[in-house]
Amino acid sequence: FEEGLERTVDWYLANEEWLQDVTSGHYQQYYTKQYGTQ
After folding, report:
1. What is the domain range of residue 8?
2. CA-CA distance, 14 to 8, in Å (whole number)?
3. By three-state DSSP, how is residue 1 classified?
4. How far apart are the first and last CA of the chain?
5. How do residues 1-38 score in pLDDT, each as one tens digit?
6. Gene3D superfamilies from the xrefs (predicted)?
7. What per-residue confidence (pLDDT) applies to 25?
């Protein structure tokens, strides 16, 4: 479990731009633009 948690945290730290886009709402805006509201 601890190894998996550590690897997960490392992945998020290595992908900060993706994390910022997802948590800022940018991804939701993109999703709405591409697929509309449903």
Report:
1. 2-35
2. 10
3. coil
4. 37
5. 999 999 999 999 999 998 898 888 888 888 899 998 76
6. UDP-galactose 4-epimerase, domain 1 (3.90.25.10)
7. 83
